[in-house]
Amino acid sequence: MFKKISKEMTGFLKECPTAFHAVARIERELEKSGYTRLKEPEEWQMKPGGKYYVTRNDSSIIAFRIGAKLSDYCFHITASHSDHPTFKIKENAQIEVKGKYTQLNTEGYGGMICSTWFDRPLSVAGRVIVKEKDHFITKLINMDRDLVLIPSVAIHMNRAVNDGYAFNKQVDMLPLFGGAGIKKGDFKKLAAKAADVPEESVYGSDLYLYNRQEPSVWGAQEEFISSPHLDDLQCAYATLKGFLEGQHEKNVNVYACFDNEEVGSGTKQGAGSTFLYDVLRRINRCLERPEEDYYRAVAGSFMLSADNAHAVHPNHPEKTDAENCVYMNEGIVIKSHAGQKYTSDAVSIALFRDLCEKAGVPVQYFANRSDEAGGSTLGNISAGKVSLNAVDIGLPQLAMHSAYETAGIRDTCYLIKAAKQFYSTHFYEKNGAVYKC
After folding, report:
1. Sorting pLDDT into bands at 50, 70 and 90, what band is 4?
2. Which residues pair with residue 301 across a beta bridge?
3. Please, what's the b/e burial string for 113-151 (b: 16 or more CB within 10 A of its CB; e: otherwise)?
4. Helices in 123-185 by DSSP H: which ranges?
5. What share of the chain is helix, strand, coil (3-state, %, to 5)?
6. Which residues make beta-bridge pairs with 66?
7. Helices (H), 287-374
8. Cα(44)–Cα(46) distance, rounded to whole angstroms?
């Protein structure tokens, strides 16, 4: 099973160089499973037993299955994210250097480890907006070849590079695109060619660098996987599999994958937006339920906020808490934080732990060192719009935000099983206690 899932996930990762491609890939999986696409500007109609999905900005997606036997229903939600740290290409992309080189003008997106982007083949992918007569359409592009590279400065010219060098994104991180033969506008011509449209029809673009190195399964027992953007496509993939496999007729099961987590989620399509709130409200309305039912449903709902976690580093075990630390291939991570960077509390931890026991899945517990700040995740960001019980979980990995990250083979399977169990369970409250069936 582990090898089969690893093969499927590596194929998924290879097809998802950007958030736009990840959402397109998720759409294809949903449509194969009989989900119907809805569009936000159009009127929605749905019925119990129906399966639907909707996208926003082509980079965030929410899918849901409505149980066929709804009475006092609730929402069971998983949330992951589609984006990862990278470099966005600016509108005026080409920079000429002494008439001999052409660089691409980029800026950082998210908190990447800059040193991991040097001296490796990179390419460009994203979306272009194309004008056709009196309307505009979106086209995804992937140049899908070794196109650019960010060269290191030789150690002879930078003796301090191994002593803690501070990289300047406007100086050190610009990729080399071509030599003296490159003409002004050649990059835009390549983008238009990748979209198979005339150059003059391209009116806008969101294009990013991506690492061309393919995913690799390695280790003495082939127990590790390394790939670009495991954070957070590993969770996006695993929760999607569990969503498609699990169901409970008394639930509205919801799968959410948001863009822009790496830059704070404060966009129209991020976890801090109204996207999830809007979808849940529209579900309640389409089911012809009173507004009171929506509030009751949310109060009894549950979210798994799934974003990867820091495994103990073999060279630096001192970077993690002495006891609340986690290891690859040893189970799903439950994350807690006294300052509420994570949503987990005693109730949500207990419920999730019980789910994992039923699924036969091991769990681990993570907390940051008390003298180190941690990052926030999707659960507490989305709670500003939709407040419900939630637990922050993830899969342990090394080198988070590197251009090439590492995680455990077994942990993907653990999350699939736990997500399936979650979507196959119904929670309800009675006399102050939480029950499940």
Report:
1. confident
2. none
3. ebebbbeeebbbbbbbebeeeeeeeebbbbbeeebbbbe
4. none
5. 30, 30, 40
6. 252
7. 291-299, 346-359
8. 7
Global confidence as pTM: 0.95
List pLDDT tens digits, range 8-41.
Answer: 999 999 999 999 999 999 999 999 999 999 999 9
**Tokens in use for 388?**
């419900």
Distance CA 195, CA 301 (A): 42
Hey, CA dihedral for 382, 384, 386, 387, is it positive or negative? Answer: positive
The pLDDT of residue 431 is above 60: no
- Asked if the model's pLDDT at residue 429 lies above 90, the reply is no
- Give Dmax over CA atoms of the chain in angstroms: 77
3-state class (DSSP) for residue 183: coil
Sign of CA pseudo-dihedral 390, 33, 356, 14 = negative
Residue 255 region by backbone torsions, left for phi larger than 0, else alpha for psi between -120 and 50, else beta: beta
| 243/416 Cα distance (integer angstroms) | 8
Q: Which secondary structure element, helix H or strand E, spans residue 139, and what is its range? A: strand 135-142
Q: Which residues pair with 311 in a beta bridge?
A: 326
Query: Hey, what are 278's tokens?
Result: 């809007």
Tokens matching residue 239: 């929760």
Residue 352 scores a pLDDT above 70:
yes
How far, in Å, CA of 64 to CA of 54, rounded? 9
Which of 208, 280, 145 shows the shortest CA–CA distance to 19?
Answer: 208
Bridge partners for 23 per DSSP:
none
Peptide bond before residue 232 is cis, with ω within 30 degrees of 0: yes
Q: What does the pLDDT look like over 157-193, one tens digit per residue?
A: 999 889 988 999 999 999 999 999 999 999 999 999 9
C-alpha 49/C-alpha 106 separation (Å) is 47
Token pair of 154 as six digits: 């030789």
Instruction: Please state, as a whole number, how many other Cβ atoms lie within 10 Å of the Cβ of residue 382.
Output: 27
User: Residue 349 — left, alpha, or beta (φ > 0 → left; ψ -120 to 50 → alpha)?
Assistant: alpha
Whole-angstrom Cα distance, residue 231 to residue 243? Answer: 19
Q: Confidence class of residue 408 from pLDDT cuts 50, 70 and 90?
A: very high
| Residue appearing with tokens 């801090």 | 272
Q: Residue 192: which of 56, 93, 259 has the closest Cα?
A: 93
Give which of 210, 149, 209, 213 is closest to 178, Cα–Cα.
Answer: 149
DSSP state of 114: G
Q: How confident is the model at residue 280 (pLDDT cuts 50, 70, 90)?
A: very high
Contact 379/77 with Cβ under 8 angstroms?
no
* Contact between residue 401 and residue 232 where contact means Cβ atoms under 8 Å apart: no
